[in-house]
Design brief:
- The chain has two domains: 2-64, Orthogonal Bundle (Arc Repressor Mutant, subunit A), CATH 1.10.10.10; 82-180.
- It has seven helices and six strands, in the order αααββαβαββαβα.
- It has helices spanning 2-17, 23-30, 34-47, 66-103, 118-128, 156-165, 172-180, and strands at 50-54, 60-64, 108-112, 131-135, 146-150, 170-171.
- The strands form two sheets. It has a four-stranded parallel beta sheet with strand order 4-3-5-6, with helices on both faces.
- β1 (50-54) and β2 form a beta hairpin.
- α1 (2-17) crosses α2 and α4 packs across α5 (118-128).
- The protein starts with a helix and ends in an 11-residue tail after the last helix.
- Residues 183-191 have low confidence and may be disordered.
């Protein structure tokens, strides 16, 4: 079903740019054969997602119906919901890790290098009232009493160098991967 909705999205985008696109153009833009596009259009007409009209004896015109638009909107909502769920998992994992570090006597979090989720790390640090320090990945900063997080946007060799050099350091990428599969063992209280 998701694949069908992706094809419907592709058709909608093509028709937006070229309202009288042919089946051949729709197939080309979707990266599929003309015969496959013909079958899919037939299925979409049956579902009520696409409407066909005759332009002349040789040409058909295609339009996305309100039901087709509703299906696309639903896909957008499902995507947004999944994105928010993943963001919450990352936030929960960071909260647990940073709280445990603080509770064990760490006085600050050091983010070495760049991370897409820097804003989440900063937010959790502010909620837990622990200092966040940002450092270049190749600097020789003072990591005493610190939880060191290594940013996932850095080259793997540099990440590995810091992870090998600093005891107890963690890769942001590893935290995100583990959070995605249900790593969080303790749910934080409402923040």
């Amino acid at each position: 079903m998701e694949q069908d909705v992706a094809v419907l999205q592709n058709i909608a985008e093509t028709l937006k740019d070229e309202p009288h696109a042919s089946q051949r153009t729709l197939a080309k833009n979707a990266g599929m054969s003309l015969g496959m596009m013909n079958a899919i259009l037939g299925r979409f007409v049956e579902r009520g997602w696409i409407m066909l009209t005759n332009v002349n004896l040789k040409k058909l015109s295609y339009a996305i119906t309100p039901d087709g638009v509703a299906e696309l909107v639903g896909r957008g909502r499902r995507f947004a919901k999944r994105t928010f769920e993943i963001a919450n998992q990352y936030n929960d994992a960071l909260y647990c890790i940073i709280k445990a570090a603080r509770d064990s006597g760490k006085t600050k979090v050091v983010l070495c290098g760049n991370s897409y989720i820097r804003f989440m790390i900063a937010y959790v640090c502010s909620q837990l009232e622990i200092e966040l320090e940002e450092s270049e990945i190749d600097s020789a900063g003072n990591f005493n009493n610190s939880l060191v997080l290594v940013g996932e946007q850095e080259e793997e060799a540099l990440q590995k160098k810091v992870l090998d050099k600093v005891d107890g350091s963690m890769s942001v990428l590893d935290i995100m991967a583990e959070a995605s599969v249900g790593f969080v063992s303790e749910k934080p209280e409402a923040i």
